[in-house]
Specification:
By secondary structure, this protein is an alpha/beta fold. Helix content is 32%, strand content 22%. The strands form three sheets. Strands 1, 2, 3, 4, 5, 19, 20, 21 and 22 form a nine-stranded mixed sheet that branches. A hairpin with a 7-residue loop joins strand 1 (5-13) and strand 2. Helix 2 crosses helix 7 (200-216), helix 7 packs across helix 8 (229-240) and helix 11 (320-332) crosses helix 12 (344-361). The longest helix has 18 residues, at 344-361.
């Protein structure tokens, strides 16, 4: 039987543990049909031959934790992501507001939280640029917002307003007046709810733009790590109308403490509705929990107090007992818990909740996920493997950048600072590790994360030898965390994540072999092509007709 497509002219890495390498791969009906000489022999009159031009073909990447709709929407509004100072942001806000006099709200997404001392941003700085319309800007981690005086006024935030549940209104020194910095969703949501909501069509357009970017980075599967029912409908519309989407996805239904018992009663019906509308394209296997916030905002839940704030252990989103009850209930419904846990206190609460679900519901292939796991107490690290917990890690965070030096290390001190992002230690313990970007928090390109996992350095190459170099991993292991690791997280390791006959032809063509590429060059390795089940979703590399077709 002749193949539809044959790839040749480069290195083909299967991604298997034996690090198999071949010189040809054949695809038939969207699946890999042969490797090596058998693939070369599968050319026929109608076979398309893709010349890899000395590059490499690998299993396509997954992204085990991202926010595509949020990321797509964040590409709109004030372009603050690349601003290098508070002054740059204020100037960008004024320029955008002047160009858009019709906009009722001025919004922007993704500025660096370390640009102001201690991450504290003053409403008055924005008032100088836009005093008469509300301004709402979110930091790159999305756990903090900077607002102007008009936004505070519309939200009803005054000196008399108490901190809301699950949030913090930062006050001016020596008083109760709101500063303009809001921490966590309990404080953010009253402001966010006032801003104009994009239409369904605008959400769909944002998702299409986001997934096109993922495809261009070699990604064919994404875990959307925070989905409400209306966002699930956005995925269905985008996947089943027009050109469709260049990725498959698993959706995490969001579950928050307030009214959680009533919400989970609808989850099974919502799952059936979504999966039946887009079979083979979208699954709904997961439920998202926030166990805490982030260290840089002082809201991650810690076992011991913050170094710079001895009276605070951070902000746990759930009580440990209620988190365990909710995770157990979700597990009983056949959903997999996907728990955001940054601080060591939140990581312990997440592991305790999974353990409680196992005791109550019995052992089964649940594949729970603890996402981020930035800080793990030594006692808890072996519990990941023991409980079958997948550690979904963001390798791009494992560097000593200004976020680390200006905000994180001063808050937790040197000893805890040395226990961050223990990628190699988790792998050595036997824990299943999958990588994700958390885009738009940080860049979505897997190769950038892989480069950081291998070097533990900033893009500028510091520090020499890497930050916490004992936690570096090799390139092949990092590649596997972004492919086979994500396939395991998706419950689809028999279908993708490696290149074997019978598996789906989810492929990525890189300009060079990443395993032999200098680690410092990995982040800039061009992605020349991406295929989803044999269908090209990115790139237009020239292909040639089969020799048989010419002769």
């Amino acid at each position: 039987m002749h193949a539809d497509t044959v790839f040749t002219g480069g290195t083909i890495r299967t991604g298997d543990t034996d690090v198999s390498v071949h010189d040809a791969l054949a695809v038939t009906d969207g699946r890999i049909s042969a490797l090596g000489p058998e693939a070369s022999a599968a050319r026929g009159p109608r076979t398309t031959v893709i010349d890899l031009a000395g590059g490499a073909l690998l299993p396509a990447f997954g992204d085990g934790h991202a926010h595509p709709v949020l990321g797509g929407l964040g590409l709109r509004g004030v372009p603050v992501r690349e601003c290098a100072s508070v002054e740059d942001i204020v100037e960008a806000v004024k320029r955008w507001a002047d160009l858009h006099p019709e906009a009722e709200w001025i919004t922007g997404d993704g500025f660096d939280p370390w640009l102001a001392p201690d991450g504290l941003f003053d409403a008055r700085w924005l008032d100088a640029a836009v005093p008469d319309r509300p301004v709402l800007l979110r930091t790159s981690d999305h756990h903090t917002a900077w607002v102007n005086g008009e936004a505070l006024r519309r939200a009803g935030y005054t000196a008399a307003t108490p901190d809301p549940a699950g949030g913090r209104i930062v006050r001016r020194d020596g008083g109760e007046e709101p500063l303009g910095t809001l921490r966590e969703f309990g404080a953010l949501n009253p402001v966010l709810s006032l801003a104009p909501t994009p239409s369904h069509a605008e959400h769909v357009d944002a998702l299409r733009e986001a997934t096109a970017r993922f495809a261009a980075a070699g990604v064919t599967w994404v875990q959307d790590a925070l989905v409400t029912p209306d966002l699930a409908d956005v995925w269905v519309t985008a996947a089943t109308t027009g050109p469709g989407l260049p990725v498959r996805a698993d959706l995490c239904f969001l579950l928050e403490p307030d009214g959680w018992r009533e919400r989970i009663a609808r989850f099974a019906a919502d799952r059936e509705r979504v999966e039946s509308a887009a079979p083979g394209l979208i699954t709904v296997r997961s439920v998202k929990f926030f166990a805490d916030g982030v260290i840089e905002a002082g809201t991650a839940a810690l076992l011991e107090p913050y170094t710079d704030c001895p009276h605070s252990h951070g902000m746990a989103t759930w009580t440990p007992a209620e988190l365990a009850e909710a995770v157990t209930a979700v597990d009983a419904l056949g959903f997999r818990p996907h728990i955001h846990a940054i601080g060591d206190g939140a990581v312990r609460a997440a592991l305790d909740a999974v353990e409680a679900a196992d005791r109550a519901n019995g052992p089964h292939d649940r594949r729970p996920v603890v996402a981020h796991a930035e800080l793990i107490d030594p006692v808890d690290l072996p519990r990941f493997k023991a409980l079958g917990v997948i550690a979904n890690l963001q390798p791009l965070w494992a560097q000593c950048d200004p976020l680390m030096t200006e905000l994180i290390l001063p808050r937790i001190g040197a000893e805890r600072g040395r226990r961050q992002y223990q990628i190699a230690s988790l792998l050595a313990s036997g824990t299943r590790v999958a990588f994700g970007s958390d885009w738009p928090v940080t860049a979505h390109e897997p190769l950038r994360g892989i480069a950081t996992a291998v070097t533990r350095q900033t893009p500028g190459g510091t520090p020499e030898g890497g930050w916490l170099p004992e936690e570096r991993i090799d390139t092949a292991t990092a590649l596997a965390a972004y492919s086979a690791g994500c396939a395991h997280q998706a419950f689809e390791e028999k279908d993708w994540g490696a290149l074997r006959p019978g598996m789906r032809a989810d492929l990525v063509h890189l300009a060079a072999d990443p395993v032999t590429t200098t680690p410092a060059d990995l982040a800039h390795l061009p992605v020349l092509g991406t295929w989803l089940a044999g269908r090209r979703t990115h790139g237009a590399a020239p292909s040639t007709p089969s020799r048989a077709a010419r002769g």
